[in-house]
Amino acid sequence: MSRLFGSVRARATLAATLVVAVALVAAGAAVLLSLRSNLLGEAGTQAERSAREVATELAVGTPYGELSLDVDDRPVQVVDEDGGLVAASEDLERISGTGTDAVKPQPAAPRDGEDDDDDDSGESLEPGEIGERITAGDGSATIDGDTEDYRFAAVPVKTEDRGRLTVWAGAPLSAEHGAVNTALTVMLIGFPVLLAVVAWVTWLVTRRALRPVEGIRREMAAITASEDLARRVPVPGTHDEVARLASTTNQTLAALEASVERQRRFVADASHELRSPIASLRTQLEVAAAHPELLDLDGAVEDTVRLQHLAADLLLLARLDAGERPADARVDLAALAREEAGGRAGVTVGGEEEVTVAGSRGQLGRVLANLLDNAQRHARSAVEVSVRRDGDMAVVAVADDGEGVPAADRERIFERFVRLDAARSRDDGGAGLGLAIARDVAVRHGGTLTVHDAPAGGALFELRLPGA
Fold first, then answer.
1. Are residues 349 and 387 in contact, defined by beta-carbon separation less than 8 angstroms?
2. Rounded to the nearest 10 degrees, how much is the dihedral formed by the CA atoms of 376, 378, 384, 387?
3. For strand 383-390 and strand 347-351, is the pairing parallel, antiparallel, or unpaired?
């Protein structure tokens, strides 16, 4: 049961059925109340009409014995001012809900003195006048052995010789009961059928609507089991939310596939790059162990330092890939550039005296050091560094007078472990991580790093960062 109602399809069907059920119950109750009210009003009108007909006869002086009390077999009572029954329907056996339960008329008592002009409701009547205010109520009566429910109406009338009288007349409620019972029976039978139809239609519609979602789920389960990120989920041609979900899922799979592929290449390249200095260092140590006099101590130290730098680069790239946010400190790029250029032969720094950005001083210093290392490696004689403001951006330009970077390779050089000069040794050129680290740090700081042609014919690397 919990598995059944754990599905969206079952919950949607149940919710739709409950909503329709509540609406049907509310509508049915309103219909029944309205129907009963209308039928009660109609019965009350009929009872009032019958009572006024008898009151009219009394107003003109018709004797009790000649009143039309047995029309349509409806119960009628005539009650005097003292509450005594002075006239009633001939076959009336029992009655309730009127002014008196008596069914057999009693002789009217002699009247002395003046009558009060007001009836019980406070309505003042003149002799021969019928009251406008009526009293209504529900009750029952037995006429000639048949018992029914009635709607009673009481109409006051003032007579010349008999004083104030009240005529009670009833209209049967059998039609009201029958209509209400019939409507209730129809609702009790029709509502469950209608709810079953609603549930069935909702079940079919949700199954059709969720079929693509189930296809996406099955394909994602297959991708998870096979670990084949090259597979994609089916995209329905409905152009709705499900189709957009499938498209977004495929985009996520594509990004995940690219990320995994980059990670694989990174691990492979890192392993390859680490193998060379480790192998060189091991060889030197093995030779030194066998022949101490042949130990190349400078070479061993150089390989160790190169291995240390490579490990630091790989660690920084790993932190950047993990989404490490740079520190939010104020850094003077002009001062930092002068600091990094200090002691480097052929490097000059120009531009503004103070250009401030927000970020990590250590990471930004690493960017400038990598750019200067790259420029010095390719420059013939000079490297120029300039720092300036450009609107809201801080710009650092590093230009050399070397061969420059071909247009086709200006994006490729920022990839990891890429060295354009294949003949250059790793000892001279590094592992090809400097520019990749520089761009990643620039992007993490909300900036860009691009390469263009320098005025002197070499490469011009331009770092743009948001100003503080």
1. yes
2. -90
3. parallel
Distance CA 14, CA 27 (A): 20
Q: Record the tokens describing residue 417, joined without a space.
A: 């472990």
- pLDDT at residue 464, rounded to an integer: 92
On whether the CB atoms of residues 440 and 463 are closer than 8 A, the answer is: no
The answer to whether the predicted template modeling score (pTM) of the entire model surpasses 0.85 is no
35-89 tens-digit pLDDT: 888 988 899 889 899 889 998 988 888 888 888 887 777 899 899 888 889 898 8
Q: What are the distances in angstroms from CA 93 to CA 50, 101, 295, 298? A: 19, 10, 136, 133
CB contact set of 142 (below 8 Å; sequence gap of 6+): 92, 93, 94, 95
Nearest one of 132, 138, 135 to 171, comparing CA atoms? 138
> Is 393 within 8 Å of 465 (Cβ atoms)?
yes
Domain ranges for the chain, please list them. 1-213, 241-321, 329-466
How is domain 241-321 classified at the architecture level of CATH?
A: Orthogonal Bundle (1.10)
How far apart (Å, rounded) are the C-alpha atoms in residues 277 and 209? Answer: 60
Identity at 315, one-letter amino acid code = L
The 3-state secondary structure of 24-57 reads HHHHHHHHHHHHHHHHHHHHHHHHHHHHHHHHHH
Contact 59, 44 (CB under 8 A): no
466 near 394, Cβ under 8 Å?
yes
Tell the CATH topology of 329-466: Heat Shock Protein 90 (3.30.565)
Instruction: Report d(CA 237, CA 276) in Å as an integer.
Output: 53
End-to-end, the C-alpha distance of the chain in Å comes to 60
Q: So what's the pLDDT on residue 81?
A: 86
Paired sense of beta strands 329-332 and 164-172, if any: unpaired
What 3-state class would DSSP assign to 147? strand
Cα–Cα distance, 449 to 459 (Å, whole number): 13
Residues forming beta bridges with residue 88, ordered by sequence position: 77
110-129 pLDDT, tens digit per residue, is 555 455 555 555 567 788 78
Query: What is the average pLDDT across 420-433?
Result: 54
Whether 329-466 and 241-321 are alike in CATH topology: the answer is no
Average pLDDT over residues 12-30: 91
Q: Which long-range contacts (CB under 8 A, 24 or more apart) does 89-94 make?
A: 89/143, 91/143, 91/144, 92/141, 92/142, 92/143, 93/142, 93/143, 93/144, 93/145, 94/140, 94/141, 94/142, 94/147
Alpha carbons within 13 A on the beta-carbon side of 451:
22
> What's the rounded Cα separation, in Å, for the pair 117 and 107?
23
Rounded to the nearest 10 degrees, the angle between the axes of helix 297-321 and helix 434-444 is: 30
